Amino acid sequence: MEIFDECFESLPDTTLRPADFDDFWNSQVTELRKLSIDTQSKRKISRKILSETSYSLDFQSAGKYRVHGHYLAPKKLIGKPPLVIIFQDYLQPQTGFRALLNAGIAQLTITLRGHESLDLVSNDKKSEEKKEEAAGTTKTKKGEPPIRSNVTEINVKKSPGYLKENLLEKRESYLTALYLDAYRALEVGRLRRESDSGRIAIWGRGTGCAMAIAAASLMNRATCLFLEKPALCALETSLRHSKGVWADEIKEGLKGPKKNRKKLQENIQYFDSLYFAEALKLPVGMAVNLTEDQNDPRSAFSLFHLLKDEKDMHLFTQDDALAKANEKRKIIQTAVRFFSKHILDKELEEDVKVTGEEEKRD
C-alpha cells in the first residue's frame, strides 16, 4: 500500500523544538502546583452499587478552572483495581467503556474544558436512539458519561474556536491550559483511594493523545499509554495534511496579523506533543487509521519512530460504514488487551469478547 510506505518513511523532526521548551513547561507546572487540587466528589447511586463504585467529580486546574470528570471502578474483594485515565478527542462527548470494567480496571474520564457548555449530543432523538442501538450503549443517569461497548462519533455542529485562543500569548492559550488539565487529572487519579495509585495508565483519543503524552512526560507516574489516532503531533506535517476541526482552528489562529505570524509559528511549537514524547520511558500502544484524513497518519508514524521504549502499533483502514464500526470495536479490544498486559499483568486472548454487554440495556 502506497500510503503505508509514505507513512513508514515519516521520520521525527525535532529541529524546531524551542530551546526553552522544558523550562517553559516546568514553570507552568510550578505555577499550577501552587493551586490546591480541591477535588469535589459526588457518589452516584445505581442498581450496580454492589459491583461498581461511581462518582462525578470536579477539581481545580489552571486559572482556577473547574475541570469535570467521572470516576467508575469495579468493586474487588481483594486489593484495588488499576486505573485508566481517558482524555477524549476535541469536541467529542465524555465516554466510558464497559470493557474496562469487565476486565477489572477502573476509569477516570475527563471532560475537556469548555465542553460542558457544548451540545455534543444529536438533537435528532430518533437518530440518536438508532446510533445508541447500533453502538451498544448502556443508558446512564443524567450527569454520567455513557458507557459504550462501541462508540458512535457525535460532532458538534459549530466549531467553538477554543484551540486558536491566545496563541500569541502562549501562557494564556487554551492549549497550555489543556495540557495542564491533563497533568492535574493525573494528580487526581493518583489520589483516588478506590484504585491502585501505582498502576495508572492513560488512554488518549485524537487530541487527547497530546494531553496523555504531555501528562506522562511532565509527571513520570504513568505505567503505560494507549494513543488512539494521535493529533497535535509533528505539527509541521499534521497541520498540512489533517482535515479535522482541531487542525482548522489552529491554522486559522496562525494566520493572525502579518506582523505576528512569525511569533505565532514559534509559539505553536510549544504544543507539539512530539517534543514531550522524547522524554517518555514507558510502553506505548497506538491505533492508527491509514486512510482517515481527520488526523494525519504520517505524524503518528513520526511519533512512533521517536519512541524509545516498548511500543506497538495497530493499523486500520476505513472503507465504509461497516468497516468503520468494526474498527471502533477492534480499537476498544486492542486498548483493553494492552492495559490488561501492562497494568493487570494478564494476557487476554486475541479474539476475546471484551465488551460483554452488547445485548444488555439499563
Commentary on this structure:
By secondary structure, the chain is of the alpha/beta class. It has a single domain (2-10, 18-342), classed as 3-Layer(aba) Sandwich (Rossmann fold), CATH 3.40.50.1820. 36% of the residues lie in helices and 17% in strands. It has helices at residues 2-8, 21-32, 98-102, 125-135, 174-191, 207-218, 235-241, 245-255, 261-268, 273-277, 297-306, 321-343, and strands at residues 40-43, 52-60, 66-74, 83-87, 96-97, 106-110, 137-138, 147-148, 200-205, 224-228, 284-289, 311-316. The chain has a nine-stranded mixed beta sheet, sandwiched between helices. Helix 6 links the parallel strand 9 and strand 10 (224-228). Helix 5 (174-191) packs across helix 6. It is globular.
CATH class division: Alpha Beta
What Rg, in angstroms, do the CA atoms define?
Answer: 19 Å
Quote the beta fraction. Answer: 15-25%
Indicate the CATH architecture: 3-Layer(aba) Sandwich
Q: Main sheet?
A: 9 strands, mixed
Oligomer: single chain
**Gap between N and C termini, in Å?**
44 Å
Would you identify the CATH H-level superfamily? Answer: Alpha/Beta hydrolase fold, catalytic domain
The tally of beta strands, per DSSP, is 12
How many helices in DSSP terms? 12
The chain-level mean pLDDT equals 86
**Cross-sheet strand order for the largest sheet:** 1-2-3-6-4-9-10-11-12
Helicity, as a percent range: 25-40%
Total discrete domains: 1
Query: What's the helix-strand series?
Result: HHEEEEEHEHEEHEHEHHHHEHEH
Estimated structural class = alpha/beta
Indicate the overall shape.
globular
Question: Which fold does the CATH topology refer to?
Answer: Rossmann fold
Low-confidence stretches: 122-143, 148-155, 354-362
